[in-house]
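Subject — a protein and its fold
Fields — amino acid sequence, structure tokens
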Amino acid sequence: MPTISRRDFTRLLSTALAATATLPHGRAWAAALENAAYEDDKLVLLSLTEASARIHAKTVTSTQLVQAMLARIAIYQPKVNAYITVMATSALAQAAVLDAEAKAGKFRGPLHGIPISLKDNIDTAGTRTTAASPMFKDRIPTEDADIVTRLKKAGAVILGKLNLHEFAVGCTGDVSYFGPTRNPWSLDRVSGGSSAGSGAALSADLCYGALGTDTGGSIRVPSAWCGIVGLKPTVGLVSIRGIIPCSAPLDHCGPMARTVEDAALMLNSMTGYDPLDIYSVDHPAEDYVAGMKQPVSKFRLGLPDSFYDHIDPEVEPAITAAIAVLTKLTAGVTSHAPLLAIPPAIGDLGEADAYHADLVQKYGNNYMPPTRTRMNTPGTPGSRPVSTAAESGKAHENLATIRRVIDSGFNGFDLAIVPTVRYLPPKINSSLALEMAGSTRKLKVYEFFEGSSPCGNTSPFDGYGIPAISIPCGFSKSGMPVGLMIAGPHFTESKVLALAYAYQQATEWHLKKPPLTPEMAVPPIKEGTDTPADKKEPTPPPS
């Protein structure tokens, strides 16, 4: 499948724009381009649900949507660095086929003709899938991941591959062979990881929907820090076959979107049993858009206290206000009881060790430097030891037990409500310095109380294997988004989506847009130059 790299696409459009200045009537050309950009902006600002409705009403074509997105990517990709590969040629070819079908009155479903982008650890046949690592910079899969096959069958257009934290082993999104992803709300800050590009691309209106993966919080952390919606479904509900693993027993794939209804609409086309995925579960099909619209007035809410410990004063007011809104919409808060604790041995599952041991044998110890300390990489100072067979076996027993009994932990309440992340995104410069220091850095005693891992609140829910969604619920004084997480027992996606949708209907946080402009300067990366207050301990590996 022909593709164009992000670098080549940006250079191509920049050259075309520069050339207009040398043509006769250059000002007229510039005015025409400005008008085209305005029309494109109107299209890219549509929600996925709105774009779908317009395609089905035949008032817009898939080709128009793709072209509008490509034009905006050319302007803002150099600002946020969300994409690794922009699949312009193949996306336009897909759009043309789908437009012909639409013209003939044949629609594949709500995603027909909608440009969607994929985290670059999800295999795409003929287009490289890198996991943001130098080890895979030339890796071109021969088959699509199961989820890509499903989305194409549903009519989605694959627009490109999105940046991520290398091999999805971090929650900041700054460690990538292709450079850090920048937060559209403040270009000097991380966007959260590991689905960093997915969060940034949606926040900057560079796609209508995106796929992320989540092993310790990788969908929900960037969703919170970028002010979008991200859903981690029940483990096994969405196939992970053809996705480069982080730690397969904990890996989830889910939709990331601008609105709750967009996430629900995407999920409808993502689920289904995959007999070739050993983690897939055979769950009856549900209509999550319909389930999202169920009444929530009788829902009882739980606020497990430990998830609120050491919350940042910049985050707390937004969370408190959100809980007040939810209390009015529902039967209120009926429990502060803790959910089950995750044993530390869950980190010894062994799948990541086995996968990366094979990679090191094949490619050598060629990770980005911060990643080396998170892998079993001999000769790297601070590198963690490989799990033993006994540790792996015990960890799998613990995980199976937790997932079997977690639903009973929702005792006296239906859904749990917690902050997605307890603090704001750090600046890229200081975050990179901490990533480079890795396990050799000595933690100061006062930093113990800061809740140093962005994934601290999210990772337990990967162990539980239950659905959890992050939704925007406000902003800090400095203008950074704050996320609220809603979680429920296994296969309660409809309830989780319903409460998220009810909250969205009662507020307007999802309508806010970051202050991006074409003229905005991109701050330089100068490792370790930020103030101590901006520094946070890098995230430990999720497996």
